[in-house]
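Late entry, written up from scratch paper. The run itself happened at the end of the previous shift, but nothing got recorded in the book at the time, so transcribing now.
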Amino acid sequence: MLNEVILILGDRDTIYYIQLEIDTRHTHQTPHTTATMPAIRGADSKKKTRRHTRDFDQIHADMHNKRHLEQFHETQVPEELPAFGDFYCVECAKFYESEANYKSHQKSKPHKRRVKALKEEPYSQKEAEAAAGYGTALAKKPDVEDSMIVEE
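Output as recorded:
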């Protein structure tokens, strides 16, 4: 037996009509919807924000300035961190449950790739503005060959 339910949702500006067909013969299954509301965000939005770690410039500052790293650790609640925050990889900005997990992480390819990427100096704000065309950029020196006038 199929039952039809119509839901009306919305606010002042928009109204959504949702038509549901519920099969009452199979009560252990979830109802099947024939029309759905549009998604607010993409399906991958939670994946991106959940796995986001600190940026390269922040990690670079952590590696070169111990006070910067201490300020980051002061913002964390130790009781909510794995192993109370004892095993922390500075290069990857991740906490680990045990020393064994931390040691195996240090031997892994993602960690080695991150260390290699962090050897490069991050761009400064001045360099970023110059690349975008803002501010004063360094003038390119003309080549000697281009400036020479050949007279015949």
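Residues 77 and 152 are 78 Å apart (CA to CA).
(Scratch paper discarded after transcription.)
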